[in-house]
Design a protein that fits this description.
- With 127 residues, this protein is an alpha+beta fold.
- Helices cover 30% and strands 27% of the residues.
- It has three helices and seven strands, in the order H-E-E-E-E-H-E-E-E-H.
- The chain has a four-stranded antiparallel beta sheet.
- The longest helix is centred in the first third of the chain and has 17 residues.
- The protein is globular.
């Protein structure tokens, strides 16, 4: 009887440890922002999450990436003003916006992305 109870507890604990693991894309994928030299300026540990917003007078949504620390956003946008930064999903470049001015906000908004890519990034960053 003790053996059956121990085996049952072990199976339960294993199930609890793996529950949802198949849905946690953050362990399988990487989202990051890099400069033109390929140096990462922001990684998944910097991102709080992602959402979408409607673009006024347009027929599409933009991806909004929220950061934990607004000073990081300001720092890397000041440093790369006038240059392009790339948003990556794994090794694929999703967007290469040019930094027009330093951003003093805890979020970045990127438009012109494919809906499927936006949804994938949101799913990864919100898990």
């Amino acid at each position: 009887m003790k053996k059956v109870l121990i085996i049952g507890v072990l199976i339960f604990l294993y199930g609890c440890g793996t529950a949802g693991a198949e849905n946690d894309l953050s362990n399988e994928h990487e989202v990051y922002i890099a400069n033109k030299e390929g140096d990462k300026v922001a990684t998944m540990s910097d991102f709080e999450g992602a959402s979408t917003t409607d673009i006024i007078n347009q027929d599409y949504e933009a991806l909004v990436i929220e950061f934990y620390d607004a000073s990081l956003v300001k720092e890397f946008t000041e440093e790369h003003q006038g240059q392009s930064l790339s948003l990556y999903l794994d090794e694929e470049v999703l967007a290469e916006p040019r930094v027009q001015a330093p951003i003093e906000s805890s979020s970045l908004m990127l438009d012109g992305l494919e809906v499927e890519k936006i949804e994938k990034v949101k799913e990864i960053l919100n898990n």
